[in-house]
Structures are given as structure tokens and as C-alpha cells.
Amino acid sequence: xSREEIQKLLGGYATGTLSEAERRALFEAALEDxxxxxxxxKEEALREVLExxxxxRQLIAALGPERGWWNRMRRPLALALAGGLAAVLIVGGxxxxxxxxxxxxxxxxxxxxxxxxxxxxxxxxxxxxxxPRQNRAxxxxxxxxxxxxxxxxxxxxxxxxxxxxADQASGAAAIGGLAGAAESKKQVADARRAPLxxxxxxxxxVSAAAATAIPAVxxxxxxxxxxxxxxxxxxxxxxxxGDSLRLQVRARQSGYLNLFRRERQAGWxxxxxxxxxxxxxxxLPPAGGxxxxxxxxxxxxxxxxxxxDNALKAELDAGAAPAxxxxxxxxxxxxx
Amino acid sequence: MEPEQIxxxxxxxxxxxxxxxxxxxxxxxxxxxxxxxxxxxxHEVERLEELVPLALKIARFKIMSQRRKWQRHGEYTQVSxxxxxxxxxxxxxxxxxxxxxxxxxxxxxxxxxxxxxxELMRLKLQGxxxxxxxxxxxxxxxxxxxxxxxxxxxxxLELMGGDWEQGNP
Lengths: 336, 169
Fold this sequence. Notes:
The structure holds two protein chains of two kinds. By secondary structure, chain A is of the alpha+beta class. Chain A is 37% helix and 21% strand. In chain A, helix 3 packs across helix 4. The radius of gyration of chain A is 29 Å and the shape is extended. Helix content of chain B is 69%, strand content 0%. At the A-B interface, helix 2, helix 3, helix 4, helix 5 and strand 8 of A face helix 1, helix 3, helix 4, helix 5 and helix 6 of B.
């Protein structure tokens, strides 16, 4: 790549658009070229803003409605294709019309023969019009009962402090939160929809009701893409072994947030700890990510305390619920 | 390129970059602090693709932190390594306000871009790479997309007054 070409890659740095090879080419060139390095450093401010998924959504909204199919049709190639298709349809129509005219005498002969009583068709082949209207309404079977249930939600947390019944709050969703009863109801709805939305997909089973109603923490699962950028995972998120995830969290009150991961042998391991301010977003863990190299169900626990909480791990390992003014969210992620 | 070579080059670049924003001797100290931080807290980061953006981020925070201290106290105080908490950039209210202002300006400006630039920007914000954008926009080659993107970036930068941030590195 020439210097001019590499400079054109600058625009892709802040948005995380560059491929691995493009990033390498850009950074190598920047190490040799002070002007390019300075330009890259200036892009850093933009990159920080665009790291926030909320900011991205705001900008996408500001860009206006997406170009519709008619606008795409205005492109020359699309017009050429549309013209070609129209020509094929016209020619096809003419050929069909001519072939019908040839076949017409045969039809007249057939009309002259007395009609025979039609053999009874199997029920499945009967025309729809013959079927009573009420019989055509197909009642969908109820969704299968939810099987994934947070052990923590049922066993460890005091029932009185939950924002929603524990058995209603597990389900597949990439976005979770604990903003009270209304939000819990939405999570239940998401959970019930999940089997229909992604019947074959390996999914993130997020158990989100295991927390006190106040204070609350909201989180969004972020999935690392091929460029190493963490972006919000789709709601029907499918995670595979090797995927790397982070949580974007927002606390409703200031305090200290701990993210734990349950290990089979070692109990609860602290993944990240972060002092948080009310209403501000943080990404946990700040470096690396939650991942699994093999298919497994990973259990996470997000706990908001009033201050740095050294005793928490020992309490969790002992099977105690995070109590005493703490809020906790149990998150189960299934890697397939 | 070996990690040591990368660090040497990085130091050279950071000193020159910082010198254009701060005094010369402070720029030297700042570059040294960036390297110390990289060594002490991020010694496992060795790949060029990770090291360069991380160094840029730290250098930027150092410069901004230095400027704020000057503004607040009117004096120069050495910024210690532990002053920088990279995992928690949001904790600084000034940073939050700057980001919010920048986002507001961006929001106003992106709407003024031409149709192609808006489409390109949308796809970039949706996480598409240049190869995917080439297909979606029906460009003949990826170089065409690079050129479009370069022009669109220039256009947006001009709308923003020539700088993403006003007065910061």
C-alpha cells in the first residue's frame, strides 16, 4: 500500500472498521511517519466516543432513515438488472400466451366429454375453500417450559429482596437489567419468546432477577467482532466456544461493582472490580473478556456493594447470598 | 517487528506528538511514563495491533490530565503512573462532559453529510468492515471504498471545525 492509500485507512480506525491486516498496515506506517501518528492520535478522541454503543445508536439515528429499496433501484447496475428482468418477464409472458392459444382446441375437446364424478380427495388435499373457516385457524402449541433457571436466584438470594419471582426471570436475552417490576415483566416476555426466536441456536441464558430491587444495575452483553471491537450482542445472541464477551454496566447508584465467574474447582473467582458512579457506563472486564474455549455454561455474578468488598468472595464461596445492601445479578451464558 | 523495536519507535512518536501539545521536557517525561505504564500494567501486550492503540490511549489521557491540572492549579505537577486508571475513564466528570459535547457536535454534523457518506457512516457504525461495505454499496473495488471513506471523513472533519475535539489532542 502506498502512503496515500494507508492514510485513507484512518477513517476506519475510530469506527473499528479495519480488518487485522488493515490495522497492522496502518500502525506500522504510523510508527514510521510522525504526521500519520499524530493524525491517528487525534482519532483517539473519536474512537472513545464511538466505543459507547449508545453513542453509536444516537449517531445512526441522526443519519436518518436507511436507504430504501427504491433508492437502491436508482443505481445503474440495479436499473440494468431490473430492465433485464422486466424484458425476460415480457418475453416469458408472450411465449406463455402463444402456447395457451395452441393448447386451446384440446381443451374444447375435453369440455365436450361428460364430467365424471370426482373421486374423493384425501382430506389433506381438499381445497381450502371447502374447509370450514374455523378449522383453518391453527392454534400454536404453548412454548416449552423454561428449563434454564438460576441456581443462585432460587437458592442463594433472599426471596424478599427479589424484583421478580426467580422462576419467571430466566431466559434468553442479550440485554438484561433490574429496573423493577415493569422491566422484570419484559424479561419474562423475552424469556417466553426465546424458544420461538432461536429454536436451534445456542443461546445466552440470562437469569436476571436475582437481585434486590434497589439499588439496581443494568447491563448489556458485548461480543467481540473479528476486528477485536466489542459491540452489543444480538438479543437472540448465539455464543460459541472462543467468543469473547464483556458487560457494559450502568449502576443506579454509586458504589463498587464486582464481577465474579464460577469455576468448577475454585468456586467464585473475581474477574473484575470497579468503582462506579451513579448513571455512568463501564465495561467489565476492562481488558480481555469472558470466554470459554470449550462448550460450557458459564455462570457470572455481578454484585454492587457500597464500597470495595473484600469479604464478598469468601461469603459467596460459603454459599451465602450477597446481602447487606448489596445488589446482585446472576448471569448464565451458554457457549455452544 | 520485535516488541522492543515497537516500544522504541513508539517513544519517539509519542515524544514528538506530546511536544506539539506540551513543553519539550514534559513531553519526554510523558513518553517515559507511557512506556513505564505499558511495562508495569500491560507487559503481556506485545502485538503491534494492540500496543499502538493502547499507547495512544494512555498518551492522550496523560496529556489531558496534565492540561487539566494546569488549568485547575495553574502549576505543573508530575503525573504519577497510578494517576491513570484506564479501565475507568468515565469516572472523570470533565471527560464525560467533553465526550457528551463531542457527541452532540457529531450528531449535528453527520446529518449534514451527503447521501453516500451517510450510508457509508451508517454501515461503519453498524460494525461492517470495508469488504462488507464494498458489497453493500456496490463499489467496484475496495480502494474505491477507501477513497469514499477518506473524503467523507474529511467532509465530516470540516463540518466539525477541523478537529474532533475543540482544544484537546
